Amino acid sequence: MGKTFKGRPVIAGDITAEAVVTRQGFNTLASFQKSALMKKKEVICSDQNNADLYGKNLTGKVLCLPQTIGSTTGGMVLHTVSALGIAPSAMLFSGPIDSLAAAGVILADVWTENRIVAVDNLGDEFLQYVQDGMRVTVSEDGTVQIS
Amino acid sequence: MEYRMHLTDEEQAILNGSQGETMAKIVKTLVLYGDAFGATRFVPVTGQGHLVTSFGISVLKPVFSIMDELIGAGLKAKEPFTLDPRPIDYKNVKCNPIEKLIFSKILYGMQGSYEAQLQKIGLKSEKSFTCTCYLDEVENTPGYGDVLSWAESSAVVYANSVLGARCNRNSGIIELFGSIFGKVPEFDLLTDEGRKAKWIVEVRCETKPEAQVLGSAIGMKVMEDVPYIKGLDRFLGMELTDGVKAYLKDMGAATASNGAVGLYHIENLTPEAKEQGDALIREDAKTYVIDDAELKRVKDSYPVIWKDKNAQPDRCFIGCPHLSYAQLGEWADRFAAELKKQGKQKVGLTTILTAAPEVLEHFQRDNQADYDRLLSFGVKLSSICPLMYMNNPLCGKRPVITNSNKLRTYTSARYFTDDEIAAIAVKGGF
After folding, report:
1. Do B201 and B237 share a structural domain?
2. Alpha-carbon distances, residue A2 vs A130, A135, B80 (angstroms)
3. What pairing do the DSSP bridges indicate for beta strands A8-11 and B183-185?
4. Whole-prediction pTM value?
5. Binary contact (A97, B36; C-beta < 8 A)
6. What is the per-residue DSSP string for B175-201?
7. Tens of pLDDT, residues B152-202
8. Rounded CA gap, A134 and B34, in Å?
């Protein structure tokens, strides 16, 4: 059993990893800053205002979210954690990608050796269906398979 | 790779490397950014730049590597730029020796080298560190219709809404790339359609709403959409006086931080609303009514996230975004009145008013009486960024109070209205 969704690839790529899910806006700076500042090898979400993700490991995961929120340093922060090799492997957006997240995944793609695969417009049903720990396979054409 | 944006021959040549590999990467970044939002072309940047990244924090080494690459390629911003405030001011915002050691050697250990990079890329001046670059004293005030490449959210929303400039809510680095290339992809708030309101906000309060709470309520409701605000001209009038602009500065910063608003219109007041009126409202716009009860509900919803919720405050920040010249004078009057009321000579709490370096110079030069009065009250004047000061593991745990909804949103600081803050600061606690 599983379900397939189709979105728009913003940064295309093939990846399979475990899902971590937030149904509220993802505050990029607040989520990453503590682990990045402490130079940790993995990011443990430090946003106390996000009950879905607080305290969870984000590194290498498929981060499923509606959009990012917060400081306009957000894109730069995503670029930084990508360069440090501690970013999520993919970001899957139920709605259209926001300008800060788009900047972050694009900066990571063009200016680092790493890539954060990004797909947007997956729909509200996607975010209702996907749960923490589910295995998610993202394909280059924006197809997302959840099992 | 195929791109959807239409590039001129010159832009295509740059993308292909005619001006070097680094410039090609800058243009590729901006093309991908434009493609993500359906931009069809680049438009020239017509205003000076402003950068959001003002802190030489060691974890940002990948950003400093980009800066090195830009400098190595001989690239500079087309026009000199201003940038957000510095994160430290040892003279006016005291630290204990351990904090100072950690700030200078570890946390912000790259501040000096980063500022040297900024000078090579096009920093306007040593004084250009403020989030209120658009104030007259700072001389980075965009004109109506100017296209900008900025990222600081409070400055973007002010430039769009109060000045009628056009700027998207960009990320750090992207705004620098736009300033270097001299062009930005045209989408969203750069287009007429993108500037139309998806929300009508009806203000039905009995008295003038607190700017910071009104902005917070609007931001939380409309998130990234454009609101058209009706009923506020009853309190603010129909002219953009210095006092009204200061109110809109603070209200806008709250809309941008409590939500993600990049532009608001105010009926009969802001330039595009004066010109176009209801034609700025989309047919499918939703309505949000704000009355005194709604503002109370919003203010009461702010959580207290101090480690010890019953602690007494040990510091007070006023001025996020930085205060204007007129606001500094108002705070001198407010503190004078509160000190008289409580029968005291000095504030009882470390209280820091923050403003742009050039605004503080103006204040000291042209209103020496209020400047001296504030210092005699024991108030500190600084150009520090309260948000960056608090956004580190050492200071984040301090019980700080503020009149800024932006500072409340991004840190553990507790929000109080201007009058509440004055009373607490003078008393020295609750």
Report:
1. yes
2. 10, 10, 54
3. unpaired
4. 0.96
5. yes
6. HHHHHHHTEEE--GGGSTGGGSEEEEE
7. 999 999 999 999 999 999 999 999 999 999 999 999 999 999 999 999 999
8. 33
Among B23, B76, B12, B78, which residue's Cα sits nearest to residue B45?
Answer: B78
Neighboring chain A residues of B63 at a CB cutoff of 8 Å: 76, 79-80
Does residue A114 belong to the interface with chain B, where contact is any CB pair within 8 Å?
no
Q: Which residue has the tokens 């690839």?
A: A9
What residue numbers bound the domain in which B274 lies?
Answer: 193-300
Contact (CB, 8 A) for B410 and A30:
yes
Q: Is the domain of B283 the same as that of B421?
A: no
Peptide bond into B313 cis (omega under 30): no
Cβ distance B163 to B134 under 8 Å? yes
Nearest to B171 among A67, A76, A84 (CB): A76
Give yes or no: residues B204 and B158 share one domain. Answer: no
Cross-chain Cβ contact A72/B53 below 8 Å: no
The tens digit of pLDDT for each residue in A79-120 reads 999 999 999 999 999 999 999 999 999 999 999 999 999 999
Compare CB distances from B62 to A10, A79, A99 and report the shortest one's residue. Answer: A79
Burial of B198 (0-12, 13-18, 19+ CB in 10 A): middle
> Per the CB < 8 Å rule, is A39 touching B59?
yes
Pull the structure tokens for residue B242. Answer: 């210095």
Is B173 found in the same domain as B57? yes
Cβ of residue A103 closer than 8 Å to a chain B Cβ:
yes
CA dihedral sign, ordered B382, B387, B393, B397 = positive
ipTM over 0.85: yes
Chain CA centroid to CA B273, Å:
22
